[in-house]
Amino acid sequence: MKALALLTTVPSDAHNWNLIFMQLLLEENGFTVINLGPCVPYDLLASACLKHNPDVVVVSTINGHGFIEGKALITETRKVPGLADTPFFIGGKLSTDATLSHLYAVELELAGYRKAFNGGDGLPDFLQQLEQIKSRKTTLSVLPPPR
Amino acid sequence: MRASPAYFHEFVTRCARQGKLVVQPRMGFSDAARMRQGLQAVAHAPVPSIGTITLDSFTRTGDFTSARHAVANGKTLNGYPIVTYSDDDNRALLAGIRGPEFPVQVRHGSSLPEEIFKATIRAGLDATEGGPISYCLPYGRVPLELSIESWARCTRLFVDAGETYHIESFGGCMMGQLCPPSILVAITLAEALFFRQNGLKLLSLSLAQGTHGQQDIAALRVLRQLGEELLGRDESWHIVFYTFMGKFPETYHGARSLIEESAKIARLGGAERLIVKTVKEAHQIPLVEDNLNALEWSYYSACQSADFFVDEAQVQQAAAVIMAEARFLLDTLLNLSADIGQAMQRAFAKGYWDLPFCLHPNNYGRSYARIQANGYTGWASTGNIPFPRQLVDTTRAASGRLSSGDLFKMLSYNQLRFDAKVPALA
């Protein structure tokens, strides 16, 4: 079974193109993608997580509110049963100030994201992390069930 | 409360009669003092300009609690939270700046904009923009039906406030890029008919710059002709053109060339107003100074239109295609119901109207657009849109599965074209 990525954004972010691009990218890298589209409220994301139990949650945001809402998003969603260890990534334009976004990235990682990316620089890193998530899923599924 | 004078509409009409293109920035700051400085600076620009108050995303999505919290804690938002500030604050923002020679438009992006309309009227402003389709489908997940109902109520709020209020349809800018011009023309006209059906008199039609100047000029001509047919040949409406809204050139030279071309297209295509971008678009939210620079130099670029070559045969050919498709889309819609709101809902539900690349649950999602070999934006797949066979361009043959790289290349087409002068899509 393919690894499942839940693709989402923060509640106030209305942008589409980043989500369409990210869906194609994730699919090409071997994931089944559920794309929740723009402006996703926290409760919708939480219920989608409960329903689909994703292997990874990818938050793509470019409206500049990522540093505010990204934190609330992970705090809210981590409460969902079974999601405490799911890797979360956030990336895009994290604030309206490019010179401060790297500081916000650290804050977001402290809040629980495995990695927070600014712009496209982190793409190779991100793809590598996706490979790990996929291979871990494969390993887990071929291991004998615990006694 | 006394109705606002029609500053916005009269200013554009007056400039149009004098043959002057009105230029307008995008501008929104959460700090009221900064917002006022921005408006003041634009008011003093030595070109015919209109002020803009762009609202923040919390206000746009109706999350007034977050907007209030951010303002109270001094956090910077991506626009001016007009509903959060008091009416006195909003009036103070405009006092001594807004007037017959400097109208101000509120720009938002909300599918359920009641509170924004009310705050706009209370602030004494007479102009805003958007529409039931254009501020719903590209921007979230509010059901189209609710957006249509809300926009009908909002239109009537303006109508009840007086005859002087103006709404610009944002329908010609759907998705910002990669949308065939025929459906842009059809959507902005349908929204205009919707506003009229709800009693509004003064309005504008929009169109965004695409991937080819000749095709853009053709689309502007079609918009004018269909506008005259459907809205009347009078001064109750005008056309606003938008500098490219997608992935922007990163070099100063490239950004400047793209913006200059948009100003010339606006002029040659007969638009009355232009919404400008700045050379910093690819990098950061522009400073007030960047906006002033862009306004002045867009205006002067538009004035010096002689060096931009209109290929009349090419424009006419492109216009014939856009006209046939747009007319077909509008006829299809108008045949679905006498109530425009109902007709819009049915058209999207059946996939007769289908917006390429739009993720909204109420969009059919089977149509695709692509940039053709000649640089025009066209259809890659028309999905369930029942275009008659003779309208279907043979170059639209199925183009295989779109990869992230293909999409990125199309999204970057204008960036590459102007940064590096790449002649056509490889």
UniProtKB/TrEMBL annotation, chain A:
Which Gene3D superfamilies does the record cross-reference, listed alphabetically?
Cobalamin-binding domain (3.40.50.280)
What InterPro entries does the record point to?
Answer: Cobalamin-bd, Cobalamin-bd_sf
Molecular function terms from GO: cobalamin binding; metal ion binding
> Which CDD domains does the record associate with it?
B12-binding_like
- Outline the extent of the B12-binding domain: 2-137
State the superkingdom: Bacteria
Q: What is this protein called?
A: Methylaspartate mutase sigma subunit
Automatic annotation (TrEMBL), chain B:
Name the Gene3D superfamilies on file: Methylmalonyl-CoA mutase
Q: Which UniProt keywords apply?
A: Cobalamin, Cobalt, Isomerase
Q: Which SUPFAM superfamilies match?
A: Cobalamin (vitamin B12)-dependent enzymes (SSF51703)
InterPro entries (alphabetical): Cbl-dep_enz_cat, Glu_mut_E
Q: Pfam families, from UniProt?
A: Met_asp_mut_E
Domain of life, per UniProt, equals Bacteria
Name any Gene Ontology BP term: anaerobic L-glutamate catabolic process
Q: Which GO terms describe its molecular function?
A: cobalamin binding; methylaspartate mutase activity
Q: What is this protein called?
A: Glutamate mutase subunit E
In its UniProt entry, the species of origin is given as Hymenobacter actinosclerus
What lineage, starting at the top, does this entry show? Bacteria, Pseudomonadati, Bacteroidota, Cytophagia, Cytophagales
